[in-house]
Amino acid sequence: MPTLIAFSGSDRKESKNTQVLRHAVRAAEEAGVTVDHIRLSDYQLPLYDGDWEDENGLPEGCTRLKELFKPAAGFLIASPEYNSGYTPLLKNAIDWVSRPREGEKPLECFSGKVAGLVAASPGWRAGMRGLFQIRSVLQNINVIVTPTIGTLANYTVTMNDKGDITDQTMQNVITQVGTETAGLAKQLHL
Fold it and tell me: Against a cut of 0.85, is the pTM above it?
C-alpha cells in the first residue's frame, strides 16, 4: 500500500490550513493509501545556506525528512498564502530535502512522486496564488501534481470552530484532492 506524507506550510496551533489538510488526508486514506501526517517544525531546519551546508553537511532534521520522503509515494501539502506566495517554512523544507547526499540519485526524495495541494484563506482568492507557485516548484523537481487544487475561501464563513467545512462544494473539492492523490499514487507505485 503506498504511503503519502502530509504536511502544512503553517506551524500555527490552530492553523486552518492544517485543518483543511486533515480533510484531504481522510479522503486519501479512504481511497486506500497510508498517510503519515508530520509537522515540518519538528525537524528544526536552519534557513538554507550553501556555506552552512558546506561546513556542516545536512542537518539532522533534513536527514530524518529524507528518510520519510524517499520511500513515500507522494505528498499532501497545505499552505497558507503569505504576500501572494507560499510560506518560508515550506520553501526551506523543500530546499533542504532536495539537496543531494552522497549515493543518492538527483532529487531522489521528489522525482516521480505525486502531490496534492490544498489551502485555506480568510479571503476570496483562497490561497490559490501561493499554490500555483508551489505547483511550479514541485513540477520543476519532477513531482507530478494532481490536476485538482483544493482551496477553501472565506474560512471564517466556510469552516466552523471544530474545523468542519460547511460549504459542500468546497468540501467536495478538498476531498477530491485527497482521492486523486491516492489514486495516482496507487497507479504509479504498484
Answer: yes
